[in-house]
C-alpha cells in the first residue's frame, strides 16, 4: 500500500474531499511538504500522482483564499445593514394621554319626542319640496309641448303635402287634359316640358307651390308615359316622351 493511498494524503488526490477536510483547509502547506518528502523517499517517483497532488494543492489554495474573501464580504455587508438600520430607525413615541370622555347624557321622554317630531317635519318638508319641483318640471314640459303643437307650416305647403285636393288618377287625368289643350291651342303635334312649366308659373303664385306643382307634373308625365301606371285603368301609354340629351327640353306628344 502506497503512502498516498492513506486517508491523510487522499485529500490531495480528490479536490471535493479536500474541501471538506479541515487539515487541507487550515494546514495545506504542511500537508504538501510532508507528501513530497514521502514521495522522495520512494524507490520510484510517481510523477502522475505528484502532478495531481500539486494541482489539487493549487486549487485548494485558491478555494481557501476565495472562501476567506466571501466570509469577509458577508461580515462587512452585515455590518453595513446594521448601520443603515441604526441610522434610519425611528423611536415610537409614547402614547399621549387621552382625555376622559364625558358620560353620555340620558335624554328625557320629552326630548326624545321633540327630536322625533322635528325629524318627521323635516322629512315631510323635503317631500313637499320634491313634489313642487316635479310639478313645476311637468308644467314646463307641457308648455313646451303646447308651443310645439302651435307651430304650423304655411297653409299652401300643408295643402300640397297632404295631397287631399285630388286622387292620383284625377291628377294624371288633369295633366293629360292640359297636354291635349296645349297641343290643340298651339296647333302643333307636340308640346314640351318647358311649355308646361309656364302653365305652373301662371297658376301658382308662391315659389313653394311652384316647386310642388313641378314635382307633381313630372310624376304625372312619368306615369302617363308608362303602360298600366297612369292610374286611369288603361293598359297602354297616353303620351310619348323624347329628350335629345340630359338637361335638355323634353318633347311630349300624344300617342
What's the β-strand tally? Answer: 3
Q: Which residues sit in consecutive blocks of at least 5 with pLDDT less than 50?
A: none
Q: How much of the polypeptide forms β-strand, as a percent range?
A: 5-15%
Work out the radius of gyration: 60 Å
Quaternary organisation: single chain
Going by helix content, strand content and strand pairing, the class is mainly alpha
Helical run tally: 10
Helix content: 55-70%
What is the typical, i.e. mean, pLDDT?
Answer: 77
Apparent shape: elongated
Strand/helix succession? HHHHHHHHEHHEE
Number of self-contained structural domains: 3
Task: Enumerate the strands of the largest sheet in spatial order, edge to edge or round the barrel.
Answer: 1-3-2
Distance between the first and last residues' Cα: 140 Å
Question: How would a crystallographer describe the biggest sheet?
Answer: 3 strands, antiparallel
Could you characterize the architecture of this molecule?
There is one protein chain. The chain is built from 10 helices and 3 strands; from the N terminus they run ααααααααβααββ. The protein has about 260 residues and is mainly alpha-helical. The relative contact order is 0.05.
Helix/strand layout:
Blueprint: H1 7-10, H2 15-19, H3 22-26, H4 28-40, H5 47-88, H6 109-150, H7 155-162, H8 168-186, E1 190-192, H9 193-203, H10 207-224, E2 239-243, E3 250-254
Helix pairs in contact: 4-5, 7-10, 8-10, 9-10
Amino acid at each position: 500500500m502506497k503512502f498516498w493511498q492513506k486517508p491523510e494524503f487522499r485529500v490531495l488526490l480528490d479536490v471535493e474531499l479536500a474541501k471538506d477536510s479541515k487539515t487541507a483547509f487550515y494546514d495545506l502547506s504542511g500537508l504538501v511538504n510532508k507528501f513530497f518528502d514521502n514521495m522522495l523517499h520512494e524507490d520510484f517517483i510517481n510523477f502522475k500522482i505528484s502532478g495531481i497532488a500539486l494541482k489539487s494543492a493549487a486549487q485548494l489554495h485558491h478555494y481557501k483564499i476565495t472562501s476567506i474573501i466571501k466570509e469577509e464580504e458577508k461580515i462587512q455587508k452585515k455590518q453595513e445593514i446594521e448601520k443603515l438600520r441604526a441610522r434610519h430607525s425611528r423611536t415610537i413615541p409614547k402614547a399621549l394621554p387621552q382625555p376622559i370622555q364625558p358620560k353620555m347624557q340620558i335624554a328625557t321622554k320629552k326630548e326624545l319626542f321633540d327630536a322625533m317630531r322635528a325629524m318627521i317635519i323635516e322629512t315631510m318638508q323635503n317631500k313637499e319640496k320634491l313634489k313642487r319641483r316635479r310639478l313645476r318640471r311637468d308644467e314646463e314640459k307641457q308648455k313646451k309641448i303646447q308651443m310645439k303643437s302651435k307651430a304650423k307650416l304655411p297653409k299652401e305647403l300643408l295643402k300640397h303635402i297632404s295631397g287631399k285636393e285630388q286622387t292620383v288618377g284625377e291628377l294624371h287625368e288633369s295633366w293629360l287634359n292640359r297636354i291635349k289643350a296645349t297641343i290643340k291651342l298651339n296647333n302643333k303635334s307636340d308640346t314640351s316640358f318647358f311649355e308646361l312649366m309656364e302653365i305652373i308659373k301662371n297658376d301658382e303664385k308662391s315659389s313653394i307651390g311652384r316647386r310642388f306643382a313641378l314635382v307633381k307634373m313630372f310624376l304625372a308625365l312619368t306615369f302617363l308615359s308608362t303602360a298600366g301606371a297612369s292610374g286611369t285603368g288603361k293598359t297602354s301609354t297616353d303620351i310619348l316622351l323624347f329628350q335629345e340629351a340630359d338637361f335638355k327640353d323634353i318633347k311630349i306628344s300624344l300617342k
